Amino acid sequence: MYDRGLSVLEQYGLEAKSTYRGRGALICDTQAGLVQIREYNGSPRKLGYQAKLLEIVSTRNQISVDSLLPNQEGAYVSTDKDNIPYVVKRWYEGRECDTQSMKDIKRSVTALASLHKTMKMPVQTHYVKEPLLMEYERKNRELRKIRKFVCQKRRKNDFELRYLDSIACYLWHAEEAQRRLNSSEYEDLRCRSLEAGDVCHGEYNQHNVLMLAQNTAVINFDRWHYDVQMEDLYQFMRKILEKHNWDLEMGRQMLLAYHEEKPLNVQELENLRIRFAYPEKYWKLANYYYSHSKAWISEKNLEKLEKLIAQHDNWMNFVENISV
């Protein structure tokens, strides 16, 4: 089990000198340097575009990325004797971004801004993300549906009672964010982003940013898509700020680090503010509750809900005052 997938290296003309486990993958030291072997169950077509994207970034940017390696037949997917598909990528010896280190955080944001300047490809319609307005409409319908479901339950657990106590407040925030987005210049911003072929990483978080001795590496581009690139910046900042109780000064430093590398325009800043104003974590907790077993609710989920509610005022202060 430890060396699962190792045999595919033969198809690349590589031999492993040593191996160790990474996050759901096998890291191998070969004559060509470090490579990662990972199972792949996605679309070979999208993987081909991902390889092109990473090639563009590699040739135009100082940020290191986990480029896909073709096998000796020129394919990016290789199967072992059990017919399990794998991909092989370049890999780096580094540590993940430390969410308690402002130096690491700013370095990660600067790397993202640098990536965004070069992550552009002719648009393939199939990989364009749904408009944010449609996403908010869908999520708000789900929040109302969950509220109705919980209200109709005769016996309610602690999570459900706390959810009902808070839903009016957070649903208002969710609907207000939808209204703000609808009256903003979002459609124009999105159209210009698609015309430029702007690509998002899709999962830009501390786990996918590696601190190297000389520079920064960004990995795991499997969820790339075309969209307004503020999505990446928002996702990274939100996860960091939730860990730091929506520290306003920390948020400003992150925005400034991005802005100094890739200046933010008025439309992008407004879009970012609207994204921060949407109660994403609240929706996630509600959605997780509704889509999983409701007979037993983990104490951890109740703790997450309580923590989120306790952060409400700091979150609102951040939303109302954040600027570059």
Describe this structure in words.
It comes from Blautia hominis. This is CotS family spore coat protein. It is a single chain. The protein has 324 residues and is α+β, with helices and mostly antiparallel strands. Helix content is 51%, strand content 12%. It is built from 11 helices and 11 strands. It has helices at residues 44-60, 102-118, 132-152, 158-183, 186-195, 230-243, 248-261, 266-277, 280-291, 299-310, 312-321, and strands at residues 16-21, 26-30, 33-39, 64-65, 78-79, 85-90, 95-96, 199-200, 209-211, 216-218, 225-226. The strands form 3 sheets. Strands 1-2-3-6-5 form a 5-stranded antiparallel sheet, with no helix packed on it. A 4-stranded mixed sheet has the order 4-10-9-7. It has a two-stranded antiparallel ribbon with strand order 8-11. A hairpin with a 5-residue loop joins strand 5 (78-79) and strand 6. The longest helix is centred in the middle third of the chain and has 26 residues, at 158-183. The chain is globular and about 60 Å long. It starts with 15 loop residues before the first strand and ends with a helix. The mean pLDDT is 94.
